[in-house]
Amino acid sequence: MKRSGKTFLSLLLALAMLLSACGGTPTESTAAPTEAPTEAPTEAPAETQGAYTDGTYTGTGTGMGGDVKVSVTVEGGKITAVEVTEHKETAGISDPAIEQIPTAIVEANSPEVEAVSGATVTSNAIMEAVTNALNGVVEEETELEITIDPDVIVVGAGMAGLVASVRAAELGAKVLVLEQNFRVGGSANTAGGSISGAGYNIQIEAGIEDSPEAFYDDFVNMGGGEENLNPEIALYHAEHSGEAINWLQDYVGVEFSDTVDSGGYLTMNTDRVTYTAGGASSGGGSYFVEALSNKLNEAIEAGNAQLCLDTMVTDIVLDDNGDVVGVKLDDMEINAPSTIIATGGYGYSEKWLKEYNFTNITSNDPSTAIGSGLDFAHTAGAAFDNMDYCSCYGGSVPVSGFQASLRCTINYNGAIWVNIDGDRVFNEPAATSMDKRTVWRTAEENTIYVVLAESMLSDDEPLFTGMMSNSEGFTNEEKIAELIEQGYMFKADTIEELGEMIGAENLAATVEQYNTDCAAGEDSVFGRTDNLVPFEEGPYYAVLTYPYLMMTAGGPRINDQAQMVREDGTAIGGAYLAGELIGSANIAGHNTIGGIGHGICATWGRRAAEMACENAGIAVE
Ligand SMILES: Cc1cc2nc3c(=O)[nH]c(=O)nc-3n(C[C@H](O)[C@H](O)[C@H](O)COP(=O)(O)OP(=O)(O)OC[C@H]3O[C@@H](n4cnc5c(N)ncnc54)[C@H](O)[C@@H]3O)c2cc1C
Which of 115, 143, 228, 606 is deepest in the core (most CB within 10 A)? Predict the structure, then answer.
């Protein structure tokens, strides 16, 4: 496809509603749906001698998940009610702010109150929304002009889309980035900072010998054999993952720690996982986003890239040959020689997850992981691989429905795991990270009860924590009472009664056998030797848990040029895929190895950009 074949569009997209004060850099919010105050004041309800003008006003602030909208009532010159009317904040984490900040604002008669610790972003968003409501900030509907004649369109500005955009701009392409969210970064905003590769500088400096062949062998051996992966792309990944990390460090300026280890999951033969300076726990991934955003901003300022936030791509456009020639934004079409699809996995699509993977599941993915790239791949006629495989974690208590927000400490002192029939399912303390995933993934109805006795509970060890790796634990007494009340935890004086409550007919026999084994010092069912603590006097408890996930593993089939491939082996031209969309299992097989998510974003973001540039007639060095 030649550059001259593309259509230059100077589209005025009436899709984005820009806040009048917005700046438009990758890390800022630039858009919010217009919503006029419900009782539009003729002038701003400015505070006059401590009083506000009576009325009901609406306002919008920017939280972790996007817009936070409030309704503010002023009566007798005072704020009498604040209600959060709309938000997409993470349940559990944001709840205290949503409950406490409106009341605090009413009590203080001011939008400026102290943020709730642990929910600062949501707290600030509510305060910002109330301030905007009281100041009569009216959101204007403005038109978004596409100012660039794109060689490459990038759909999605998560880590993969950012890598692809920055790399394509580095190679000299004009890049149009379309992101449906109010900010860039996708999952990496909340992810840990690990990344894996073979033969990168930090690894070499740490004195670790590695090779692409050894990396590939680990994929095969740890992933259940070559039949579980796509050897063509697994080999490419093994060969180029190291240079992608070097590029992140040297060209993009990502700050890394000097740690190199085997990662927190399955242990690879060679240490090849490193971490951003933010480390392994939640928040480390934002270091990738920050550095990539800065680099993308440089390209934007140089006139080589344009980023459109709050811009949802609704489909891809195919020509008569079935090649991709652009994208659709509702009924508008934008064309370019090359399109990179980097829309992420489907970890927040309950529909896809239930269709392919789980009966019961909760998601710790951000609400941006909607799986639209899978729809695009279907439109293009791509084949799919590994859609029936999806890794997960065990022990989510489904208090917020599909949105994961609460974890049970599944290896609690002496506790056992039983399935819906009441049978034990594993040697609990001996379960590796991968075993736990398998237990919850393969359990009937994806349901496991964590069963324990009152005597096992300790005030020092929380039975429940939030979802983030650095979340603090909850106080046992309060949380247990709350969960019993809500029907996620069950309490009974006898095991028989507990079994009846959860409908598990074998529970009494299971616990009796377990107690006999504890007395004998040997677990006759699974050989458990650690923490063989008997179920002494009641009461007894059962916690309902489901699996939860942070990324999906299947995806459209691609070749080593990042092009989608049909069942008959032919490649689909004009489009290049990158990131979680292509499926970690297609590269690394049926396992979870540390840093594979970000490794795929870096390696395939670069590969997609290089192939997209070449297709657009831009030389790739
Ligand atoms: C809590 C958590 C912890 C993690 N920790 C690690 C870790 O330590 N190490 C690791 O390697 N991996 C980790 N992962 C996985 C890793 O972060 C992700 O696999 C990776 O960030 C995915 O990047 P992506 O760009 O492919 O997709 P995403 O991050 O999902 O980005 C896709 C982007 O596309 C946008 N988009 C989607 N559809 C459209 C559309 N139709 N139009 C326009 N835009 C669209 C989305 O809004 C989003 O911004 C973690 C994930 C989570 C959730």
Answer: 606
Domains contained in the chain, number: 3
Does 1 map to a domain? no
State the DSSP H helix or E strand holding residue 350, giving kind and residue range, or none if neither: helix 350-356
Q: What's the confidence (pLDDT) of residue 132? A: 87
Specify the amino acid at residue 39: E
Q: How far apart are the first and last CA of the chain?
A: 19
Class of residue 331 by CB neighbours under 10 A (exposed 0-12, middle 13-18, buried 19+): exposed
Nearest-angstrom CA–CA distance, 17 and 144: 8
What was the pLDDT predicted at 138?
A: 59
The domain of 520 spans: 393-549
Q: Which residues pair with 464 in a beta bridge?
A: 408
Say how far apart CA 13 and CA 330 lie, in whole Å: 10
| Alpha carbons 334 and 8: distance in angstroms, whole number | 8
Q: Do 222 and 371 sit in the same domain of this protein?
A: yes
- Which of 55-69, 90-104, 376-390 is least confident? 90-104
Residue 95: pLDDT band by 50, 70, 90 thresholds?
A: confident
Ligand 1 near 285 CB (within 6 A): yes
The candidate with the shortest Cα–Cα distance to 292, out of 273, 311, 276, is: 276
Cβ of residue 612 lying under 6 Å from some atom of ligand 1: no
597 CB near ligand 1 (under 6 Å): yes
Half-sphere exposure of 615 (CA within 13 A, CB side): 29
526 contacts 535 by C-beta, under 8 angstroms: no
Q: What is the pTM assigned to this prediction?
A: 0.83
Section 107-117 average pLDDT: 82
Q: Residue 147 domain-assigned? A: no
Within 10 A of 476 (CB to CB), how many other CB atoms are there? 16
**Average pLDDT along the chain:** 88
- Neighbouring residues of 423: CB distance < 8 A, sequence distance ≥ 6: 506, 510
Residues 429-456 have pLDDT tens digits of 999 988 999 999 999 999 999 999 999 9
Q: What is the CATH number of the domain that holds 100?
A: 3.90.1010.20
Atom number of ligand 1 nearest to Cα 314:
41
pLDDT of residue 46: 37
DSSP state of 328: E
With the most atoms of ligand 1 within 8 angstroms of its CB, the residue from 343, 433, 471, 603 to mutate is 343
Report pLDDT digits (tens) over 340-371.
Answer: 999 999 999 999 999 999 999 999 999 999 99
For the Cβ of 189 lying below 6 angstroms from any atom of ligand 1, the answer is no
Residue whose CA is at the smallest distance from ligand 1 atom 37? 343
Distance CA 412, CA 416 (A): 8
**Do 439 and 539 lie in a common domain?**
yes
Average pLDDT over residues 413-441: 96
CATH number at 336 reads 3.50.50.60
